[in-house]
# Entry
Amino acid sequence: MDTVEIKNTNTIAGWLVIPGFNLVVCIGYAIYGLVTETQKYQVATSSITAVIISWLWFGFIAVVAWFFLGLRKKGPSVYIALLVVSVILAGLGLLGDNSEIKGNSESVIDFARALVFAVVWIPYFLYSKRVELTFVH
# Structure
């Protein structure tokens, strides 16, 4: 099989489009979470922690997007950090779920999705030549 020569590029191309799209979706989902959490706990000051956590999560995703979409050298590292934190938070959500754990539980699905995404993309970001040549700034 012939190998395709990958040149240094200034755009996100190839398989990197998928994590880039995922970041855009994550930002939209984080904004939605901010709006709903803020509205839900507008009256209850005791649940301000949930709103603060939502703002911190949004800020973290925004920083990751800035590094990743700006093709900065640390882009892959901060994206890997996002994946690891996502798995940890989904695992905590699974452990903190008061309902009986079922095969179709939303927490189980969230954890499985985060875990599969991390298992696929962390090695890609660590070993891909395209990643190495794309994030050079």
Q: What stands out?
A: The CA atoms of residues 97 and 107 lie 7 Å apart. The chain has five helices and no strands.
